[in-house]
Specification:
The chain is an alpha+beta fold. Helices cover 17% and strands 45% of the residues. The protein has 2 helices and 14 strands. It has a 5-stranded antiparallel sheet. A 3-stranded antiparallel sheet has the order 2-3-4, with helices on one face. The protein starts with 8 loop residues before the first strand and ends with a strand.
Amino acid sequence: MAETLTTPIKLLVVREIQEDASGAALRFQEGGHGRLAVRDANYATYLRLARRSQERQQPVGISFGEGQAITELIHADNDVPTQLWEEEPDRARILFQGHDGVFRLKPEHPEADRIRAMLGETLRQKARVWFIAQKPDLALLLVLPATWPVTASPAPGGSGSVENG
């Protein structure tokens, strides 16, 4: 069974990457910065995701630890939700146009009501969203409109970030 992520996740676009012997410093378009430690077992994967974000100017999901330490980088997807249905009062399932599988919104998610309302609105508008899902159970961790603002709230190490709050 997959563990639920407890660290808040932010959707950020990498603007600049500076590598040195201890890792890589990332600067974000939304302001702020973070640091990847070369000793992290996922350093190469995270650095590849950061470079893709920088090249394509697309967000990645980022979790921060102490200070500006980046604890996780997660690929963010962009798609149009096509169906949203309630299984129980607190549980929702979502289908996306270009993704296989049924995505879930867990009842214990702290932003479940906001995400459910936003998905309902984007369904009516047939609008795209950026989202991050935990695999293998396809539990949604963060969902924002594809036209998300880039100065929603302060980020570690600077001002302005988009976060799930």
